[in-house]
Write a structure and sequence with these properties.
Elements lengths: L4 H24 L12 H11 L6 H23 L14 H6 L7 H5 L1
Helix pairs in contact: 1-3
The protein binds zinc ion.
The site of zinc ion has 8 residues, from helix 5.
């Protein structure tokens, strides 16, 4: 963990805001937010996928939901202290990457691949 506490707090605030925005957008598209179902998130996702096959907004919703999952994972990792590590190579993600994209799962090098 190379991020200092202040930076981490700022990133967390950004993530919480993004989470709220994404949930509002999904709600506007007719998606019911998964309140407090973080643990069973993957299972719940598959169920909602089937339910909205007939919806015309599938692509948009998928993109939004994918981002929301990333945001939620990032917030969870902040709690357990594993936040800021590249999911591909395991190195610390550059702070400037996190500043632009707090839910980033990859470091600059892996992103560029
Ligand atoms: Zn990497």
């Amino acid at each position: 963990m190379t991020l200092d506490k202040k930076t981490l707090e700022e990133l967390k605030a950004k993530l919480l805001k993004t989470e709220k925005d994404l949930e509002a957008e999904l709600k506007a598209l007719g998606e019911v937010p998964e309140m407090g179902s973080d643990v069973e998130g993957e299972v719940a996702d598959e169920e909602t996928d089937e339910a909205e096959e007939y919806s015309g907004n599938l692509g948009v919703k998928d993109a939004l939901r994918g981002r929301l999952q990333n945001v939620k994972s990032a917030l969870r990792e902040m709690e357990d202290g594993s936040y800021g590590k590249c999911k591909s190579c395991g190195m610390d993600i550059e702070p400037e990457v996190l500043n632009v994209d707090p839910e980033s799962r990859l470091c600059k090098m892996c992103k560029a691949k």
